[in-house]
């Protein structure tokens, strides 16, 4: 009989996987890596790196390319966040979250009787926040990029003008928006063929989008915010019950912020600050879990899941009751990422009993949308970009402003449609995330970078609404606590908890029947869930952080500045995407 180990080929001399992986191996490369939700966008990014552009340049090219090839979530009509770590150790964060139009107020989505009107914050022009993507990419490029905008946008313009051939994953995904596209002539003209979804093999040409991109390439954000594109979007909004005005576009500003940081068992997490809740949820959860022997308890043991759920319950409670746009709400973020605070939280966690969520206090949770996408990039010098941007729902508000080819977001749904109304438990939600003119809705997007001993170790992020911080958390923990290689860490089934609803959701096969019985005995409500994430991740140095052979390099970039080998993985939970390196 052949020993199991002999069946596992070494990836490279000296780089034997730390575990015998049941997953395919991560994509490996020496000079640069791009992981995104669309193969053609990943390729556009790698080409930039090959020509000597840095990770920020590549991120700009990928983001514009995704706006063409991945209309599900790639966008210029939405917004997002970019976490950047430069090779010299500087860390920063670009916030290009959408803002509420000036005419928006706390009762925007309520009827005269004060009842929330279903669908108004999710479909059509009234759901649209002022897009931030063009301003955000420009801010990142002018401060940290090296290449001209027009050069980086050229692949996106070509993909829109000349079209690209839909593969089966593209076609399947696009078809999921067909019903709503049929109601919007601007979208139907592009994404449908006489009312029917385009089949695989069709070349999808987007001429209006090509023209809009060419205008932005030439004139920069002015084309979008004060020029013809803003005019067209405002005209479409006014003709269709929306409230966008020229002043909303003219006033839009992307903002550079300090990322949130924390340490977990010697690993340093760099992630998204408010108006995202991502970094807070991630850090607070990790801080609480650091006090438990998670590695010894083992992957998805009943006790380990119990502690993880109790930590998430508390972190999401803080998220939902405390956080909002820092320009509007007074926030003491450091309090939530403090180790002492986590220790006090642990005192309230019983090892054998679930805490009823309602006992923690006032709720604010609202369901979040289902469409976002993440890009992870590392270049040859060791600059890293973790970029998550979104239209909120897949295809956003499912309206395309005529003449622009631009699908618009429904990010307004991330606000609380009605603060102060008792939820199903009779509890009242706070007003931190109420709608106000110019305000950014609270987000869960968590573009994250991890370092070890001062060196780049990991870039990770995902779509998934409120499942974003839990997805990122579990991939990091799978690597750090369980020694999985990156592919195993991404593919491993996940669980999710978010305070309210008071339940533990699990992917199929995540929990065995006896584990579920042990969790039920502690008082947890278990429900099976579908797939919410598409993790796009890179690790640096070696594919796993687990026990290494004596001659293995440690995970993380080499201390001597030598080029590190890079390993990229795209989550197989969605039918598109690729990790590509060179
Ligand atoms: O900002 C947020 O948290 C949401 N708008 C993200 C939505 C999302 O990730 C849906 N993706 N599947």
Summarize the structure in short.
Helix content is 32%, strand content 16%. It is an alpha+beta fold and 582 residues long. The longest helix has 21 residues.
Descriptive notes:
By secondary structure, this protein is an alpha+beta fold. The protein folds into two domains: 41-79 and 91-256 and 395-433, no CATH class; 258-357 and 446-581, Glutamine Phosphoribosylpyrophosphate, subunit 1, domain 1. It has 19 helices and 23 strands. The strands form six sheets. It has a seven-stranded antiparallel beta sheet. A seven-stranded antiparallel beta sheet has the order 9-4-3-13-12-2-23. Strands 18-19-20 form a three-stranded mixed beta sheet. Helix 12 packs across helix 17 (467-480). The longest helix is centred in the middle third of the chain and has 21 residues, at 302-322. The model is unreliable at 1-19, 364-369 and 420-429 (pLDDT under 50). The structure holds 6-diazenyl-5-OXO-L-norleucine. 6-diazenyl-5-OXO-L-norleucine is lined by residues 368-372, 390, 392, 411, 414, 443-445, 463-465, 468.
The biggest beta sheet is recorded as: 7 strands, antiparallel
The fraction of residues in strands falls at 15-25%
Q: If helices are DSSP runs of H or I spanning 4 or more residues, what is the number of helices?
A: 19
Mean pLDDT: 90
Amino- and carboxy-terminal Cα gap: 37 Å
Number of strand elements: 23
Overall shape: it is: globular
What's the helical proportion of residues? 25-40%
Any low-confidence stretches, pLDDT <50, length ≥5?
A: 1-19, 364-369, 420-429
Question: Structural class of the helix and strand makeup?
Answer: alpha+beta
